[in-house]
Amino acid sequence: MRSRRLDRRTVVLTGASSGIGAEAARKLSALGATVCLVARREDELASVAADIRRAGGDAYTYAVDLTDAAQADALVAQLLAEHPRIDVLVNNAARSIRRPITESVDRVHDYQRTMAINYLAAVRLTLGLVPRFLEQGHGHVVISSSLSTQLPIPLFSAYLASKAALESFTRSLSAELGGQGISTTTVHFPMVRTEMSGGTHIYQAMPMLSADKAADWLVRAVVDRPTRVTSLQGAVSEIAMAAVPGVLTAGMRPLFRQMDAMLDRKVRRSRQ
Ligand SMILES: NC(=O)c1ccc[n+]([C@@H]2O[C@H](COP(=O)([O-])OP(=O)(O)OC[C@H]3O[C@@H](n4cnc5c(N)ncnc54)[C@H](OP(=O)(O)O)[C@@H]3O)[C@@H](O)[C@H]2O)c1
């Protein structure tokens, strides 16, 4: 049999029960990786693993609530015991909250909930695997982040703050341990049609990347190990934010209001 690009690699992938993670699990396995699928919903994980095994791949499932410290620590112990070599960790599990700051004044728990899964759970898992990565002399950490950390976007303060924190942790990981074989990739996804984006009704009318196409971004991250995967729009926004942050922030505000109003009109029309 012809050798494939991820043969003999073991990839731990969180958020593998749906959306981008589930699609990426199938694609990484098709390239030869052994995939360790992590999320809470056992049946969904089992279904992704069954697809992979039917196609001749190797998949292990771990039904774990990553915000539960005891469950997350037990997961790390189990991964280390079951897999003599772990090459890649993809921190992809997350939750999103779309809410104006004015409606969040008595909802600090929104910020705690997003930090718990999007930031702290990813940090805990990464810290659990770092000793193994150092022992092996290699390890690659990928994080699923957003185009919206590259741009000043309203309404997602809890979600985006947690993603920005994870990006910063990942940058530190690279800065500190890059010389010891640890590499990192931040993936800045644009909007993707999944359960997550489906929570906001007006987004039905928004053109989005499919989960299948978005999974290709994660595959590119794992195979090529670039420092980041971004859209052109994201890269240009970062340059504009560095050069003229005030102008860009002020310019985006009315743009977003207009976009939301237009999407709302489109959804209403489609229901008539
Ligand atoms: N969709 C978009 O427009 C978009 C845009 C930019 C970035 N992203 C990022 O892309 C990644 C994948 O999101 P998606 O769009 O594919 O959404 P999704 O289908 O909702 O996937 C989220 C995944 O996270 C898992 N998860 C959530 N809470 C968990 C917990 N406490 N413990 C363990 N697993 C947990 C979910 O599994 P269980 O419910 O089974 O636990 C699910 O597998 C996320 O990091 C997201 O922030 C998405």
UniProtKB/TrEMBL annotation:
Cited PANTHER family: DEHYDROGENASE/REDUCTASE SDR FAMILY MEMBER 7B, DEHYDROGENASE_REDUCTASE SDR FAMILY MEMBER 7B
Signal peptide start and end residues: none
Alphabetized GO MF terms: oxidoreductase activity
CDD domains: SDR_c
Protein name: SDR family NAD(P)-dependent oxidoreductase
SUPFAM superfamilies in the cross-refs: NAD(P)-binding Rossmann-fold domains
A Gene Ontology cellular-component term: membrane
Domain Ketoreductase, first and last residues per copy: 9-195
